[in-house]
Specification:
Blueprint (H helix, E strand, L loop, with lengths): L3 H6 L5 E5 L8 H12 L4 E4 L11 H12 L3 E6 L5 H14 L3 E5 L20 H13 L7 E6 L6 H14 L3 E6 L3 H13 L3 E6 L5 H9 L7 H5 L6 H19 L5 E5 L5 H14 L1
Parallel strand pairs: 1-2, 1-8, 2-3, 3-4, 4-5, 5-6, 6-7, 7-8
Helix pairs in contact: 5-6, 10-11
Length: about 290
C-alpha cells in the first residue's frame, strides 16, 4: 500500500481510520479490524498512543506488526506524555528499522487522575519540540526521513491561538494535520480558515457518535464540541438507530468541509468497523 506522503502528493484524498489499541486483550481483534477496514478502502490505519493516558499495547509496536505481517500502512501516534528523549529516540530508531516512517506527533492527554499516585507524566517537550528532534535524527543520518503529522483542534474556543500553534508546528517540520472531529458549523468554518492560513495538508476529522451516552461523553471531552441539539437527537434511540444517526452526522460533517480538506481521518467508535465501512462508502460518493 502507498504511504500517506505519496497519497497526498498524488492528490488522492486518502481515508485514514483510527483504531484504539487493545488494553487487556491480545492484538487479534485489532488486527482483524484493520484487515476489514483496509479491504473496505481505508488507505491508512492510525493507532492512538495510550488514549486517555491509560496503558495499552504500544502504538508503534502495533504499527510495525501491521506493516510487517499484514502489509497494511500504519500511522502510529507518538505522545510526549510518557517518554523522555532517550526513550523516544530508541523507539524512533526501532520504527526506522521496521520501515514505519510516518507519525502523528501529539502532546498527549495527561495520566488519569486516579492513576497519578502510581505514575507520573513526562512532558520533556511538546509536539513541536519532538518534531524538531525527529528531524534532527534524519539530518544526522541516524534514521530515514519521517513524514510528520500534527493535530489541529478545530473545536478550540480560541482558534486564532490554535492556528498560531499550528504554524509553529509547521516551522518545526509538521507536513500534515489531522483535525479533531468536525461536529458543528463553527468547527467547519475553522477548518476552512485553516485551509487559508496553513501550508500543510489537512485531513478532516470525523467521529460518528453512536448513542446518547456516547454523545454526552464526547461533549465533555477536551477538544470536542458537540451541539446540544446533536446530543439530544440520540435520546431514546436503540443501537441500530443510533448508528444510523451517527452515519448521517458523519456524512453531513464530511460534506461541510469537503472542499477544504485533502482527505479524511475517521475515528472508529467502540471498534464498530462496519459503521465506519458504511461511512467510508458514503464519503466516496461525495467526491
Amino acid at each position: 500500500m502507498a504511504n500517506l506522503k505519496s497519497l497526498l502528493a498524488d492528490g488522492r484524498r486518502p481515508l485514514l481510520v483510527e483504531l484504539d489499541p487493545p488494553r487487556d486483550e491480545g492484538p487479534a481483534a485489532f488486527v482483524e479490524g484493520a484487515r476489514k477496514l483496509t479491504a473496505a478502502g481505508a488507505d491508512i490505519i492510525t493507532i492512538a498512543d495510550c488514549p486517555t493516558g491509560r496503558a495499552s499495547i504500544d502504538a508503534c509496536m502495533l504499527a510495525a506488526k501491521l506493516k510487517r505481517e499484514e502489509g497494511i500502512e500504519p500511522l502510529p501516534h507518538m505522545a510526549c506524555r510518557d517518554r523522555n528523549w532517550n526513550a523516544a529516540k530508541a523507539l524512533l530508531l526501532g520504527l526506522d528499522m521496521e520501515g514505519v516512517r510516518q507519525l502523528l506527533l501529539v502532546t498527549g492527554d495527561p495520566v488519569a487522575q486516579e492513576d497519578r499516585g502510581q505514575m507520573k507524566t513526562v512532558f520533556q517537550y511538546n509536539a513541536a519540540g519532538l518534531c524538531e528532534r525527529v528531524r534532527g535524527l534524519a539530518e544526522a543520518g541516524q534514521t530515514g526521513d519521517f513524514f510528520l503529522c500534527g493535530a489541529l483542534n478545530v473545536n478550540a474556543a480560541n482558534f486564532a491561538a490554535e492556528l498560531q500553534k499550528a504554524q509553529r508546528k509547521e516551522e518545526a517540520g509538521i507536513r500534515a494535520f489531522l483535525t479533531q472531529p468536525v461536529s458543528s458549523e463553527t468547527a467547519a468554518r475553522n477548518l476552512h480558515l485553516a485551509r487559508e492560513k496553513l501550508r500543510g495538508n489537512l485531513l478532516g476529522g470525523l467521529y460518528p457518535p453512536v448513542s446518547y451516552r456516547n454523545a454526552l461523553f464526547l461533549q465533555r471531552v477536551n477538544g470536542m464540541r458537540l451541539p446540544d441539539e446533536m446530543v439530544s437527537a440520540y435520546e431514546g434511540l436503540n443501537r441500530e438507530e443510533g448508528e444510523e444517526l451517527g452515519l448521517q452526522f458523519g456524512l453531513r460533517a464530511a460534506r461541510s468541509v469537503l472542499d477544504a480538506v485533502d482527505g479524511f481521518y475517521i475515528v472508529t467508535p467502540f471498534r464498530r468497523v462496519e459503521l465506519v465501512t458504511r461511512l467510508m462508502e458514503g464519503i466516496r460518493c461525495l467526491r
